[in-house]
Amino acid sequence: MRILEAIRKKSPDVFSRPDLEMVALDYFRSLGHDNHRRLSKLYAWEEKKSKTSWGADTVDYKKIAAAAVQAMKTADLNRFLVVCALVSDLYCPGYNPRQTLEKHSSLAGTAARYRVNPVKIGVVVTGEQSRTSARIKTPQTRPVTGRGTDCRRYPGI
To answer: What value, to the nearest 5°, has the Cα angle with vertex 97 and ends 91 and 99?
Structure first.
């Protein structure tokens, strides 16, 4: 406790690069696996899989983030800290992807502060999703053969 107290008293007004990296990586580690995946996707980090001791494949997001954070400029590191603070607002408790963003969330407040229009972005995303789903072809149905119910014989089914 005394060491922590001494560090608190000597902390500068503006943090040095090693302090920012330490805070960013510690914050990243506390976010959880789903948010690690979201941030990895957002920053387009290459997710290299490696073998675990029990033979499964896994992605070491903490190692990937550590390398990425060290390569960031100070301004990007500051942005990364803000994004880490906002990424957990993407969580949908009911796993409903159409669930709207809560008005009092940090993400909504930050969007308003930076004059980002979530409704406009939602319209664009909905348009992209509808174009994507229109391109997906439905599988052709084939006549039922064999012992199953033949719909041609029983039109009411």
So the answer is: 80
